[in-house]
Amino acid sequence: MKNLSLTHVIRESSLKDNAPLLILFHGYGSDENDLFSFASELPEELFIVSARAPYPMQPYGNAWYAINFDADKGKWSDNEQAIESRDLIAKFIDEVIAEYPVNKDSVSLLGFSQGTILSYAVALTYPEKINNVIALSGYINEDLFKTQPEDHYKHLNFYCSHGSVDQVIPVDWARKSPEFLSALNIKHKYSEFPVGHGVAPQNFYELKEWLTNLL
């Protein structure tokens, strides 16, 4: 674990140099070991980095930004903190590319829940840093970025999925993502699975196939 701006764990690639990079961003209240369990099942040529969110929670876990569950509509997100984390992730991507033997032109992000919300925000704010995004159980928060001209996004590709009975982030919020991405002519695939706030086995197999086909 190198001394970069975010604590992280890595799985090295089978390639000695210029490996495609996949960075994982966990959800609220979790840590870098959560999504890292995916690593052993993903293509061996991927160099995988799983990052820990910067805000420790009590008694355990971490957050990318604060959520106040007592606010109006049941939830209130600290968008200023989220934007700070968005920019921290962008810096972290640069650090990872400088530190590890990866291909700066093959960078994929995989997020879950809060990690997905930020993966959307990073890709739509800094599209020049990103190629592909796997967005699991999250949604697009338009308060976290300003839309850029379409031609800035033409190389991007998104895989978006959600549980149809998600009790944490309503599926209706996720269903707005394909419409938003289509309006910008961004390539994407959207799938739903009959689960709650989690990743069903068939969901994992589909995202794995999607990502493998892009490598």
The main pleated sheet reads as: 7 strands, mixed
How many strands in all?
11
Low-pLDDT runs of 5+ residues are: none
SSE series:
EEHEEEEEHEHEEHHEH
Short description:
This protein has helices at 32-36, 79-99, 114-125, 171-174, 176-183, 201-214, and strands at 8-11, 19-25, 47-51, 55-56, 62-63, 67-68, 76-77, 102-112, 132-136, 157-163, 187-193. With 215 residues, the chain is an alpha/beta fold.
Key traits:
11 strands, 7-stranded mixed β-sheet, two-stranded antiparallel sheet, 215 residues, alpha/beta
Structure, explained:
The chain has 215 residues and is α/β, with parallel strands linked by helices. It has a seven-stranded mixed β-sheet, with helices on both faces. The chain has six helices and eleven strands. It starts with 7 loop residues before the first strand and ends with a helix. Helix 3 links the parallel strand 8 and strand 9. The longest helix is centred in the middle third of the chain and has 21 residues, at 79-99. The protein has helices spanning 32-36, 79-99, 114-125, 171-174, 176-183, 201-214; strands at residues 8-11, 19-25, 47-51, 55-56, 62-63, 67-68, 76-77, 102-112, 132-136, 157-163, 187-193. Helix 2 (79-99) crosses helix 3. Helix content is 30%, strand content 25%. The mean pLDDT is 94.
